[in-house]
Amino acid sequence: MKPVTNNSPFSRKMEELHELAERVRILFNPPREYFTVVIPVAIAVLLVLWAILAGYPLLGTEKVQQGESAKLQQLKELEAQLGETSGTDQNTTTTSAAENQQKMGLDEIIVFAVLIAITPYAIDITLQKRRIRRKEELYTEFLFKLSELMRGGLDPIKSVKELSKTDLGILTPNVRIASTAMIYGKSFEESMKAMAQSLHSELITRYTTLVVQASYSGGSVADLILKASEDMRSIISIEREKEGNLAQYVMIFYFAQGIIFFIIYTLTTSLLPYVTQLGASSIFGVNKIAGLDFARGFFHLIMINSFFGGLIIGKISEGEARFGLKHAVILMAAGYIACAMLILPPPAPPAAQAINITPLSDQYSGVVSLPLKDAVQFKLTDSSGNPVNQTVVQFSVIPDGKVNPPSDTSNNDGIVSVKVVLGSTAGNYTILAKANGNTGRATIVAKAS
Question: What is the SS3 string spanning the chain?
Answer without folding.
Answer: CCCCCCCCHHHHHHHHHHHHHHHHHHHHCCCHHHHHHHHHHHHHHHHHHHHHHCCCCCCCCECCCCCCCHHHHHHHHHHHHHCCCCHHHHHHHHHHHHHHCCCCCHHHHHHHHHHHHHHHHHHHHHHHHHHHHHHHHHHHHHHHHHHHHHHCCCCHHHHHHHHCCCCCHHHHHHHHHHHHHHHCCCCHHHHHHHHHHHHCCHHHHHHHHHHHHHHHHCCCHHHHHHHHHHHHHHHHHHHHHHHHHHHHHHHHHHHHHHHHHHHHHHHHHHHHHHHHHHHHCHHHCCCCCCCECHHHHHHHHHHHHHHHHHHHHHHHHHCCHHHHHHHHHHHHHHHHHHHHHHCCCCCCCCCCCCCEEEECCCCEEEECCCECCCCEEEEEECCCCCECCCCEEEEEEECCEEEECCEEECCCCCEEEEEEEECCCCEEEEEEEEECCEEEEEEEEEECC
